[in-house]
Write a structure and sequence with these properties.
Layout (H helix, E strand, L loop, with lengths): L1 H22 L4 E4 L2 E4 L1 H17 L12 H10 L11 H4 L3 E6 L4 H9 L3 E5 L4 H14 L7 E7 L11 H11 L2 E5 L14 H5 L8 E5 L9 E5 L1 H10 L3 H4 L4 H16 L2 H16 L6 E3 L7 E6 L6 H19 L4 E2 L14 E4 L6 H22 L1
Parallel strand pairs: 3-4, 3-5, 5-6, 6-7
Antiparallel strand pairs: 1-2, 7-8, 9-10, 10-12, 11-12
Helix pairs in contact: 6-7, 12-14, 13-14
């Protein structure tokens, strides 16, 4: 009984204290005409709760670092997510057909793959192969006229230095009702009397080309690229392209640099004449090179050399060509590159050595390059034979 009485007294005393706190004059407040009592008590309670949470120290990092074993286990469990969504069978059946030259560079190959279209190859720069492929696609598919069909080519092929016969391609595209996607990365500022590219070179109206793309890191000496076409095509591209098109847009100063480069070309047409002269001089100097042959077009700024007699293996061919390139750089300070390809690259053309000619090269530069390559190629290939 005494214990119960003591507990009752404590509870009553506590209630009296709480009541006093609520009824104290300084604990009352009037907010918008409404009397609120005990706000100091509530604030005190909140302060206690906040202090309690801070005392838990949950915001501090763990004192013990992860062990090597724990790190290895986390790495084994982690599976990175691909930035490119997987292509399912349903996606592969979307209504697109792409006729693609088998020699296009890796950038076009990857873009074609990501388009999730039906891809059909034709032989490199072979218009008979293109025509027979167009006929087969048109006749074998009853829904062909309802599909969006494109012929994808490069103006100057990076993997061979050859120039596409655009006039013949346009004739075939009009005959079989295809669209043409033309990459002018290596021809802009190079081909044509004023450097306007392959359309000017062949005298084809630019309106007959549905989509023209180009990188600005070649003749324009800047970065980025562009895509042009009819207003309807570009509007569709803006709506359907990847979000990177907007989040990684071209900085203004790079666009300004490209505009300035175009102005320089327009004000100095002799640069195109000088470039053509340099190309002709280098090709002439490499005509009698031992064991190699010029595969590129006579007007192409990409002079492409390949082995006359292949070893039968692309890997072995590339090793020989790399040795030639390395020795030319080491012994004569002549920098040339080999056409290295990744395991994903599906280009079916032979590997080779690429030389990039510009209007800035002098006659002595070109003579030095041709003489160096002829000397080094003779030494390397004679030893191999």
């Amino acid at each position: 009984m005494n214990t119960m009485a003591s507990v009752t007294n404590i509870v009553n005393a506590t209630l009296d204290m709480v009541t006093l706190a609520f009824e104290a004059p300084f604990a009352r407040a009037v907010v918008f005409g409404v009397h609120i009592s005990g706000h100091l008590f509530v604030e005190g309670l909140l302060a206690v709760v906040i202090f309690f949470l801070l005392s838990q120290k949950s915001y501090k990092p763990p004192k013990r670092p992860l062990t090597k074993k724990e790190i290895d286990e986390l790495c084994e469990e982690w599976v990175p997510e691909s930035l490119i969504p997987p292509i399912t069978e349903e996606m592969q059946c979307e209504p697109h057909v792409l006729e693609r030259d088998e020699g296009v560079h890796w950038g076009i190959q990857n873009g074609v793959y990501l388009s999730r279209s039906t891809i059909v190859y034709f032989k490199h720069n072979d218009m008979e192969s293109l025509q027979s492929t167009l006929e087969k696609v048109t006749l074998d598919n009853k829904r062909a006229k309802k599909l969006r069909r494109y012929i994808v080519v490069e103006a100057i092929y990076q993997n061979s230095g050859q120039i596409a016969p655009l006039d013949e391609i346009v004739r075939l595209k009009e005959k079989y009702r295809f669209r043409v996607l033309l990459d002018e990365s290596n021809s802009l500022g190079v081909l044509g009397s004023s450097g306007r590219g392959l359309t000017e070179h062949h005298g084809v109206p630019v309106e007959k080309i549905d989509i023209i793309t180009a990188a600005m890191g070649h003749a324009l000496a800047t970065e980025g690229g562009f895509c042009t076409g009819r207003a309807r095509v570009i509007d569709h591209q803006r709506l359907s392209s990847s979000g990177y098109v907007f989040s990684a847009s071209l900085p203004p100063y790079l666009a300004s640099a490209a505009i300035t480069a175009i102005d320089i070309l327009q004000e100095n047409p002799d640069l195109i004449t000088k470039l053509k002269k340099n190309i002709s001089m280098l090709c002439k100097g490499l005509l009698d090179i031992q064991g190699l042959e010029v595969m590129s077009d006579a007007q192409s700024p990409i002079v492409f050399l390949r082995l006359k007699n292949s070893t039968g293996s692309s890997k072995n061919d590339l090793q020989l060509l790399k040795e030639i390139a390395d020795r030319a750089l080491k012994e004569d300070s002549v920098f040339v590159v080999t056409s290295k390809r990744s395991t994903l690259d599906k280009c079916r053309l032979p590997v080779g050595i690429r030389l990039f000619v510009s209007a800035g090269h002098s006659e002595s530069d070109l003579l030095k390059a041709s003489e160096s390559l002829k000397r080094v190629a003779a030494v390397v290939l004679s030893r191999h034979n």
